[in-house]
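Summarise what follows for lecture notes:
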Amino acid sequence: MITVHHLNNSRSQRVLWMLEELELPYQIKHYQREATLLAPESLKQVHPLGKSPVITDGNRVIAESGAILEYLEGKYDTEYRLALTDEEEKFQSRYWLHYAEGSLMPLLVMKLIFSRMGKSPVPLLFRPLGAAFGKGVQKGFLNKQIVIHQQFIEQHLATYPWFAGQHFSIADIQMSFPLQALAARSGVENMPHATAWLNNIQMRAAWQRVKQQGGEVNFSTRS
C-alpha cells in the first residue's frame, strides 16, 4: 500500500488530493514540524533530504511533488480520470507542473522568510533591523516580481477554466499550493479568475476528503 509521509502544513497536501482524486487506498504517517518550523529528523529515515512530500510504494521511495504526481498518474490512473489526450493540454499541464515549484514557489518562500525577519528565531536585539531589511527587500524586489506572476496566472485563467485548458489535470493539483500561498501572503483580490479557480477546486469532493485526512494548512507559517 502507498504510504504518504505527511508533514503538517506542507506540500504533501497535494499528494493526498491526488490519491483521493484517483480513489486509491493509502495510509498516512503523520509528522509534526519542530519549533523552528523545519521537518523532524525522523523524516531522514525515509528520504536523505528529510523533507515532505515523500511517499513509499513498496520498496520505492519518491520525493518531490511533481515527480510524485506524475508517478501516481502513470502507474495508477488506469481509468484515465486525469489523463489528457489533447497535445496542447499535455504541454500546458507539463509547463504548469514545473512552473509551480520552479518559478512561483521560490518567490513565495522568500516572501515568507523576509516577512519573518523581525520575529523569532531572529535574536531579539536584531529583530528591528531584520524587520526593516525584510520589508525593504519585499518592497524593492519581491512584491514587484510577484505582481508579474499574478498577472501571468490571471491572464491564463481568464482564457481557460483549468491550467491545462478545458480539463482538470495534475497541473491543477500542483498549482493549488502556490496559489493558496499567494492568496494568503499577497492576496488575490485583483485576480477574479484565479479566485474562481480556487473556489472551484475547493468544491471538488476529493478536496473535501483531503481536509479531513490531512487537516487545514496554515500558509502564514509554511515555507
